[in-house]
Structures are given as structure tokens and as C-alpha cells.
Design brief:
Layout: H1 4-7, E1 10-13, E2 33-34, E3 37-38, H2 39-51, E4 55-60, E5 77-81, H3 86-97, E6 106-109, E7 134-140, E8 145-148, E9 154-157, E10 163-172, H4 173-185, H5 193-199, E11 205-208, H6 220-230
Helix pairs in contact: 3-4, 4-5
């Protein structure tokens, strides 16, 4: 399958400066080992195989003493200083990439703790190969959704109006750089890149994600990811 996004130069960013407070472990969750490899190592190898990026940029904490111990890191992987927030880390990565990336080239931002992104999802990328801005993966909500109002009352919510956002989030360099720069200048902090893209007035194509593309957040997620990584 020919795919402009996969065939052309592209750049991967994997923010990895978080400490994973909800995971309740002695070390950041991206360094927990599954099947003899750190979670982030699974992620790096998966994205490297699927996207064949020119560079993989990994912003890590200045206090990180774990990444340097990882074995078999591909030569196109480069670490830089991460920021206080995910947005800061991605912005630092884009500042670094200004020396390499062309304005219309793709930047692929993926969570360090989503190690199960697979070839099954790559065909979705055809939807954005000629799109001016880019797209992001998401899955529908299948459980009943409720909201608790200010009085503590439980209010039903129409789940068809919502979805669960995933990564990768894939945008052209110039638009992602402008969007995050704008957010920073307005002192806004977004949880993900697509929020900044929309704030800047650009559009994002919704790509069909997968429940297998799990984000490891809690201890029990390790068991689920371990099963998927065996397949």
C-alpha cells in the first residue's frame, strides 16, 4: 500500500517526562518492563517500524536516570529536555525539529505509554495523506456516560456526542508549531495536540482507533497490555 505519510519524511515525538502519579510505582510507568522490554521501548520500536521516521524525539525529565540504561535504542532516537507539561515537552521537540523538518512534513505525536499501536491502524492514515492539517485517532464510548452536577446529582449524558481521544495525533509541522506557539503565548495549557490545533482554527480528521491501543495509566493496565503485546 502506497501512503504519502508513510513514504515521505516524517518526525515522531514521544513525550516521556511524566512521572505517572496515578500509576503508583517507584519509577515512571514508561520504564516498567513487559516481556523483557520497557514500555517505552515497545513504543519506540513499534513507531519506528510503522512510520520509518527520520528522527524520533523523546523529551525526558532533566532528572531522568532511566532512559540512558535502555538497550537497543535505534540510532534515529534523540532525547531532549522535557517540560513541566506535555505541551511544553512537545513544544521543545518542535523547536528542536525546526532545524530539520519542512513546513508541510508530518509530525507524529504519540504517548510513551501506548505500546500497542499496530500495523492494523496504518490504513486509517490514508484519510489524511492529502489533508492540509492532519488527524488524530479516537474510539467511541461504549459504556453509559454520566455527569455529576454542582449539587452532586447524577445527570445522564448522550455518549454519541463524545469519544475517547487517543494517539498518535498527526499534523503538519507548520500547523502544529503555530498552534502550540499560540497556546503558549495565550498562557493556555492543553492536554493534547488536537485541542491546540482546534484552538488555532485548524481542523482535524477523526481516525478510527482501537481498544488495543491502550494507554497504561493504572497497574491493571499492565496485564491488558501484556496480553496484546503477545499477539
Amino acid at each position: 500500500m502506497s501512503n504519502q505519510l508513510l513514504d515521505a519524511p516524517n518526525w515522531v515525538v514521544i513525550p516521556a517526562s511524566g512521572i505517572g502519579q496515578r500509576f503508583l510505582a517507584k519509577q515512571p510507568k514508561q520504564y516498567v518492563v513487559i516481556h523483557d522490554k520497557e514500555i517505552i521501548t515497545h513504543t519506540i520500536h513499534s513507531l519506528n517500524e510503522i512510520f520509518r521516521p527520520s528522527k524520533i524525539i523523546i523529551p525526558i525529565s532533566k532528572l531522568d536516570n532511566n532512559f540512558s540504561k535502555i538497550k537497543n535504542i535505534p540510532p534515529n532516537v534523540h532525547t531532549i529536555n522535557g517540560g513541566v507539561t506535555r505541551q511544553d515537552s512537545v513544544m521543545n521537540s518542535l523547536e528542536y525539529l525546526k532545524n530539520f523538518a519542512k513546513p508541510n512534513e508530518w509530525v507524529i505525536v504519540h504517548d510513551a505509554v501506548r505500546p500497542v499501536f499496530s500495523w492494523d491502524l496504518r490504513e486509517e492514515l490514508i484519510k489524511i495523506e492529502n489533508h492540509p492539517y492532519g488527524g488524530h485517532f479516537a474510539i467511541p464510548i461504549t459504556d453509559a456516560l454520566k455527569k455529576i452536577d454542582l449539587d452532586g446529582a447524577i445527570v445522564p449524558v448522550n455518549r454519541s456526542e463524545f469519544y475517547l481521544s487517543q494517539t498518535p495525533q498527526v499534523f503538519r509541522f507548520e500547523h502544529l508549531y503555530h498552534s502550540l506557539s499560540l497556546a503558549c503565548s495565550h498562557k493556555l495549557v492543553f492536554d493534547d495536540e488536537v485541542s491546540a490545533i482546534h484552538y488555532a482554527g485548524y481542523h482535524s480528521v477523526l481516525l478510527t482507533g482501537s481498544v488495543k491501543n491502550i494507554k497504561i495509566t493504572y497497574q491493571h493496565d499492565i496485564t491488558i497490555a501484556s496480553l496484546y503485546l503477545c499477539v
